[in-house]
Write a structure and sequence with these properties.
The structure holds two protein chains of two kinds.
Chain A (H helix, E strand, L loop, with lengths): L7 E6 L2 E5 L18 H19 L3 H23 L2 H18 L9 H27 L5 H15 L5 H19 L3 H12 L4 H7 L4 H18 L5
Antiparallel strand pairs in A: 1-2
Chain B lengths: L2 H12 L5 H13 L1 H17 L9 H16 L7 H5 L3 H8 L3 H23 L18 E8 L4 E7 L3 E7 L3 H13 L3 H11 L6 H13 L3 H11 L7 H13 L3 H10 L7 H13 L3 H12 L6
Helix pairs in contact in B: 1-2, 1-3, 2-3, 8-9, 8-10, 9-11, 10-11, 10-12, 11-13, 12-13, 13-15, 14-15
Classes of the chains: A mainly alpha, B mainly alpha.
C-alpha cells in the first residue's frame, strides 16, 4: 500500500459520486461531471469517513450503518452488474458489509475505507465467478444466466421506450452476446474490465484493490479487452 | 514510438489512463499512421458497443430490502475488537464472567435485593413515580403479539411485548402506531400479526415508508396471504410508482403462489401497455406452466391496441 494518502473520487453511475480517504490525509481529488453532491458535501463526507470508522471501532452501531449507507449503493450496483442476479448481488452485499463489520476493529487507516470495502467486495465477486465457472463446467450448460440477463435487458428496453422495437431487440441480442463474452474471461480479467469500463475506477485504484501493481492491472485489462473484441468482432 | 506500442496503449488512451506526454505522442502517431487510426476507431467502437450491457442503479426498493436484511444480520453480529479495545472495561463481558462466580453472584443479588426494598420503601412514602415511557423504541420491543383494528372508529390496538407486555392504541396516522405497524409487518414471527399489520397499513399507502414496507412484504414475506394483502394495498400505485410496478411485475413472474401471481396479473391491468409489462405478458402467454396465467395473459394482450 503506498504510504502517501490519496483521495479517490470517481463516478460510480449517473449522478452519484463516491469519495473515500484515509484519516488526516491532505487529499487531492478530481471531480466528475455528473456528481449530485456538491464539493463541500464531499469534503464533509471525507472527514466523516474517518470519524465514522473510529466510532464504529468503539462499537457504535449507528456509525457503522452511516458508513454502510455511504457505500452500499455502489457496492450493490457492482455486485448486480457482475452477477446479473438480484439474489446473488444481495448475498455479496450482505457478506461484504458483515465482513467489514466483524473486522472494522482491525482497520488501520493504511488505505481508504473505499479501497478496503471494494477489496472485500471484489474478493467475494471473484469467488462467485470461480464457483459459477466450476458449476458451468460440471453441468455443461449455461445455467440461468441467460434468463437473468434477459430480464435485465428487458428493463433497459423499458427505460428507452422511445426506441423502436427492432432496435430494442437488437440491443437485447447484443447485450446477451456481451454477457456471454464477459463470462468467457478469466475471473480476474472480468473483474478488472468491470471496474475499469463499467464502474470507471482508475487502474491505480484497481491495482490497490486487487493487491497488485498498476502495471499488472493494465496488462490484465489489455488481455481482457483483446479477448472481448475478438469474441464480438462480428456483432456490429 | 512504433505501431506495436500504440496498439498496446490505445485502450489506456481511450480510458484516459495515459500520461500527458504519451498521450500527445500517440495522437501525433495516429494522425500520421492510417493503420493505427483504424485500430483506434475500432477500439472506440468496441467501447461504445460494450455499453449495450448497461450499468443500472439498484432500485430504491432493492436497496432498502438489502439494507433491512443487513441490519437484521448486524444486530446478531459483534465486531472483533482490537487488542487495545480489549483492555477497556466492558461491563457486559464482566457480568458474563461473573455469572459463573457464585459468591459474587450472591453479593450482586443481595445488593440488588436491598436496593429493591429501599426503592419500594421510598415509593410507599409517597414519592412520585416517574411516568411510563411513552415512546416504544424498536430496540425495547421483544415482539408484537396482536393487532386489532376497530372498523367503526378507525383506531388500531397494537399489543407490544417489551420487558413486560404493553399496548399502544391510536389512529393509523399516528406516527407512534405507524412505526409499530411497520415494525410488525417486517419482523414478526406470527403471519397473522403481519397480515393484520399489512391490512392496517393499506389505508396509508400514500406514505412512502408504508409503501416501501408493503413492497418488501410483497417481495419477501414467506406467507402468501401477507403477500396477497400487500399486493392489494399496493395495487392503486402501479401506475404512478415505478418501484411498485417493478415489484408487482417481479411477483407476477417469480412468486411461488399461483393466487398471488393471478392477483399481480390483475393489478397490472391498468399498465398493460407499458413495454416491460407487455413483454412479460407475451412471455407468460407463451410458456407459463399455469393454464390460467397463459389464458389471462393472452386475454390482456388481445384487449390491447397494437403498438407496432
Amino acid at each position: 500500500m503506498p504510504a502517501e494518502a490519496v483521495a479517490i473520487a470517481l463516478t460510480v453511475g449517473p449522478g452519484l459520486s463516491l469519495v473515500g480517504t484515509p484519516a488526516g490525509a491532505s487529499a487531492k481529488s478530481s471531480t466528475t461531471p455528473s456528481e449530485r453532491r456538491g464539493k463541500a458535501e464531499q469534503t464533509q463526507s471525507r472527514m466523516n469517513d474517518a470519524e465514522l470508522i473510529r466510532e464504529s471501532q468503539r462499537g457504535n452501531h449507528a456509525a457503522f450503518e452511516e458508513l454502510v449507507h455511504q457505500y452500499d449503493g455502489a457496492v450493490l450496483r457492482l455486485a448486480y452488474h457482475m452477477t446479473r442476479s438480484e439474489q446473488d448481488a444481495q448475498d455479496i452485499y450482505q457478506e461484504a458489509f458483515l465482513k467489514a463489520y466483524r473486522n472494522i476493529g482491525n482497520f488501520r487507516f493504511e488505505c481508504s475505507f473505499y479501497t478496503w470495502i471494494y477489496r472485500i467486495v471484489t474478493n467475494l465477486c471473484l469467488d462467485h465467478l470461480r464457483k459459477r465457472q466450476v458449476r458451468k463446467e460440471d453441468s455443461g450448460v449455461i445455467t440461468d444466466s441467460e434468463g437473468e440477463s434477459f430480464d435485465m435487458l428487458d428493463q433497459v428496453a423499458d427505460v428507452r421506450s422511445g426506441a423502436s422495437p427492432e432496435k430494442d431487440l437488437m440491443r437485447r441480442e447484443l447485450g446477451s452476446r456481451i454477457a456471454k463474452a464477459l463470462e468467457r474471461l478469466t475471473p480476474r480479467e472480468r473483474m478488472v474490465f468491470e471496474m475499469k469500463h463499467y464502474q470507471g475506477l482508475k487502474l491505480r485504484t484497481i491495482g490497490e484493490i486487487l493487491n497488485t501493481t498498476e502495471e499488472t492491472a493494465k496488462n490484465t485489462l489489455f488481455r481482457g479487452t483483446q479477448k472481448l473484441r475478438a469474441a464480438l468482432k462480428d456483432a456490429r | 514510438m512504433n505501431c506495436d506500442w500504440v496498439r498496446e496503449n490505445i485502450t489506456l488512451y481511450l480510458y484516459g489512463e495515459l500520461a500527458d506526454d504519451a498521450r500527445h505522442e500517440l495522437e501525433q502517431h495516429v494522425a500520421r499512421c492510417q493503420d493505427c487510426a483504424t485500430e483506434l476507431a475500432e477500439q472506440r467502437q468496441f467501447q461504445t458497443q460494450m455499453s449495450a450491457l448497461p450499468v443500472e442503479e439498484p432500485s430504491a426498493s432493492f436497496l432498502a430490502a438489502s439494507r433491512m436484511r443487513l441490519q437484521e444480520a448486524l444486530e446478531q453480529t459483534s465486531p472483533h475488537r482490537a487488542w487495545y479495545q480489549k483492555l477497556a472495561f466492558d461491563p457486559a463481558a464482566w457480568l458474563r464472567q461473573v455469572r459463573f462466580s457464585p459468591a459474587l453472584a450472591m453479593a450482586i443479588f443481595m445488593v440488588g435485593f436491598g436496593g429493591g426494598l429501599g426503592a419500594m420503601y421510598q415509593s410507599m412514602r409517597g414519592r412520585a413515580v416517574p411516568p411510563a415511557q411513552e415512546n416504544v423504541s424498536e430496540a425495547a420491543i421483544s415482539g408484537i403479539t396482536s393487532i386489532e383494528k376497530d372498523p367503526t372508529t378507525n383506531t388500531v390496538k397494537v399489543q407490544v411485548d417489551r420487558v413486560t407486555p404493553d399496548s399502544v392504541q391510536g389512529s393509523v396516522s399516528d406516527p407512534k402506531v405507524q412505526d409499530l405497524l411497520l415494525y410488525a409487518a417486517k419482523s414478526n414471527d406470527n403471519a397473522g400479526v403481519r397480515l393484520n399489520s399489512v391490512d392496517a397499513l393499506s389505508s396509508k399507502t400514500d406514505d412512502l415508508k408504508v409503501r416501501e414496507t408493503l413492497t418488501y412484504a410483497l417481495r419477501y414475506d414467506s406467507n402468501p396471504g401477507v403477500r396477497l394483502h400487500s399486493l392489494e394495498g399496493l395495487s392503486p400505485f402501479v401506475k404512478e410508482d415505478i418501484r411498485v410496478r417493478n415489484a408487482v411485475l417481479e411477483t407476477l413472474l417469480n412468486d411461488s403462489n399461483l393466487g398471488v401471481r393471478s392477483g399481480a396479473l390483475h393489478a397490472l391491468e391498468p399498465v398493460k401497455t407499458d413495454s416491460s409489462v407487455r413483454m412479460a405478458l407475451q412471455q407468460l402467454a407463451k410458456e407459463d406452466p399455469s393454464e390460467y396465467i397463459r389464458t389471462e395473459s393472452k386475454r390482456l394482450l388481445a384487449s390491447m391496441p397494437t403498438v407496432y
